[in-house]
Amino acid sequence: MALRKPSGPSDLRIYRPSFACEYSSREEEADHRSRLLAKIHNAYSKALQRLATHSKARRAVATRIRGGGGFSFGLLDPTSNIIANTFIPCPRDPAAADKGRGGDEAAAACGSRSLDGMVTFLSRFFPYLVDCEAVRYLLLAGSDLLVATRIVVVDRRMKRFGSSGPAVEEALRMAPRCAALAAQHPDPDRFVGAWLTISSRLDEAVGLLAKVRRRSPSSSLRNLEKLLCEPPPQMDDSRGTLLRAWQLAMSRRPLPRNVPHQNTSTGLRRVLLDAIHGFYLQALARLPAGELCSLYQRSLLMAGHCYGPLDPVSNIIVNTIWSTRRSHLPWNSGLTYPTANSFIPDQTGTGPVTDGLGNELGMVVSTPGLLRIETRSMYGLVSFLCTRYHHLNFHRATRCLLEADGSLLLSDPNLDAEAAAATIAVLRTKQPARLLHAPWSTDTGFHHTAALSSGRRVVTQAQGPATSVNEAFKAAATAAWHPNADAQRTFSLHVKRCWGLSCLCCRVEASSPVKMLTVLPAC
């Protein structure tokens, strides 16, 4: 992201889009890939040592690994995945016997294809993840696929990951198939079916794989092959079976305390944009349907930003209705504050509505229009935090916003301490119930104290804000391309001073913005 330097002396930190590449260089990507391939090769060496006692037997096992799709990705650790995948019944490559002259050749051939499969798994499971970042996460996880998946969830601050268990399970069914296709597995469907069978009897499968040793009896391999030959469970019977594999990954490798970043904010920015998109969908659902397209649409798309002293959804609604009321006056007219009752919009017709670019708005709020206001809101949020706390850059401010659910009230504890305390109290009462119904959540700690941790980190590193709230709201309005930045800044300060805690306490009970605004105190 580009930090715009304002003309003249100023403490504003205004961020705007930049087309500069934020990803690793080709040399760094090649180094990461080489190091990851070395870890995968080490897993193949361990698998060969457990399956073969001498060089002649090792050559035969290597041929079977290469010809039968013995890749290192699956739901267990890499070595166990290789052993299990080797004995999955599937068509064999007849050319493998000629190509696979030894263990090193088999490891090199399958290792590269395994890497491609794991990268495809992660990019399919996390649509915002690019290949070079997937390689970096796999390197941190020691080439363990499920551990890498958990690291991504933690690092991207995906606090609501697993709130829909069936959606996660469906993704865990589709991603392995995509990985098998990318690795050119001889039978991707059979591969997925075998792992569904393993997940349904995971403890038994782990026990059988643990018995596979260099001098173990052949009965352990026969029992493993017998398990892999069984048909996969039916869809209804397999619900919840993948959860055990997800939880088992927690015990294999501890999550890193800090994930080294390389100033790549693209993925975090997309996650934050996705969260902001959810705020706008909630706001659209709360706005009166009859007046949405005829009265509020232009104001929503032009000035209905989600930053402000309230929660994001309330900010969108209040900013939209305030902008609608002001649209009847010239933008450069004097600012007047409506009372609570005068916020109820009149029901008179407004004529054709345009988007400010000469295009007449239709009866549907378009996706491009929403994306534009969502992106502008994101830059407003980040610019607010970076202006208040100069030690924050775009990347760190984005992470703070993700931890605080996109709320400036929780990101900046000095914005409104009373309202922030009330919000945290509400979150604490709801937290146990949410965790009880989120078994897929990662054990990271930020699920419990996200609202507190981000704010504390901002304060302790700089001992208070560097600028006033007035300047921060000015930076937010400027970065968000508000039609009248000065008026919007003054209005935000007015809402903070008169309505903050009252609106915060009543917004949950409000069935519509009209009802919400009528209970606010007049100033």
UniProtKB/TrEMBL annotation:
Chain ranges of the PIR2-like helical domain: 39-151, 274-411
Coiled-coil boundaries: none
Stored Pfam families: PIR2-like_helical
InterPro entries on file: PIR2-like_helical (IPR046527)
PANTHER family in the cross-refs: EXPRESSED PROTEIN-RELATED (PTHR33120), OS05G0571400 PROTEIN (PTHR33120:SF47)
Protein name: PIR2-like helical domain-containing protein
